Amino acid sequence: MSVETGDEFVDGAPDAIRARLALALDFDDIVEALRVARVMRPWFGVAKVGLELFSAAGPEAIEALIDEGYSVFADLKLLDIPTTVNKAARVMGSLGATYLTVHARAGVDHLAAGVEGFATGATMAGLALPICLGITVLTSEQADPGSLESRVRFAVEAGCGGVVCAASDLGAVRALGPDLLTVVPGIRPAGVGADDQARPATPQEAVTAGAGLLVIGRAVTHASDPVLAASGIARAVSSAS
Ligand code: C5P
Q1: Which domains, and CATH codes, for the chain?
Q2: How far is the CA of 126 from the centre of ligand 1 (A)?
Q3: Ligand 1 neighbours by CB, cut-off 6 Å
Q4: Rounded CA gap, 46 and 66, in Å?
Q5: What are the tens digits of pLDDT across the range 55-90?
Q6: What are the start-end ranges of the H helices in the chain?
Q7: Which of these, 197, 215, 194, 198, lies nearest to 206 by C-alpha position?
Q8: What is the DSSP letter of 168?
Q9: What is the model's pTM?
C-alpha cells in the first residue's frame, strides 16, 4: 500500500508510478537479488531479470520474483534462428514473464517468432497476454538513424508490443510506432554518474520525452541510500507525468 502523505513517496509510490518503474536486478546471486527486490518493492512494480541473474538462477528467479508480487521483465535479448527463439519465448511465457526482449536487428520473422512463442506459452498456462519487446540499438553499438528506423519498423510489423530504446531516440520511435510501449534504460538522476551508459537521461527527461517504462539499475542498487534514491526517482516520474 503506498502512502502519499506529508512525506510523499518515502514509504512507497502509487501503483500507477510503480507500474512504470522496472528494477534491474543485475546480480549473479538469487539471494542478493531477492533481498534487494523485497526492499525495493514499494517503489517498483517490475523486476528485470537479465542474462546475469538468469544464468545464475534460471526459471527460479522468474518464479520467485512473481511470488514477491512483481511483473517480471525477462531481458534475455534473444537472437537465434526463429524456431529457437519461438521455443525459448514459449518457455518464458509459460513461466509467467510479462515482458521479454528479442533483438530487432534480426528482422521481422525472428521477432514474430518471439511474439508468437511468448503469447502461446502464456496462453497455454492460462495467463494474460504478455508483451514482447524489440531491442532497437544497444548503447554499446554504433548504429545510424537508419538502423533505428528499420528496427522499429520490424518490431511494429512483427506485432511486438513495445521496444527498448534510449531516451534520445524516443521522438523517432514514437513517430514510427505511436502505439508501442517504450522501455528506456540508462536512467540517471541529475548528479549521478553515467557508469557505462552512453546516452543517459534523467527520469524527468525520459518521461517528458514519452518513456513508458523506465529501467533503473545502479542509480538505486549502487546508491549509498537505495530507499532515498528510489523514492526520489518515483517522485520525479510522478511530477513529470
Ligand atoms: O545502468 P543501469 O544499472 O541502470 O542499467 C540498467 C540496465 O540498462 C541494465 O540491466 C542493462 O540491461 C542496460 N544497459 C544498457 N547499456 C549499457 C549498460 C546497461 O542498456 N551500457
Answers
A1: 4-240 (3.20.20.70)
A2: 32
A3: 24, 26, 50, 75, 139-140, 185-186, 195-197, 215-219
A4: 9
A5: 999 999 999 999 999 999 999 999 999 999 999 999
A6: 15-18, 30-40, 51-57, 59-67, 82-95, 108-124, 145-158, 170-176, 203-208, 218-221, 226-240
A7: 215
A8: G
A9: 0.95
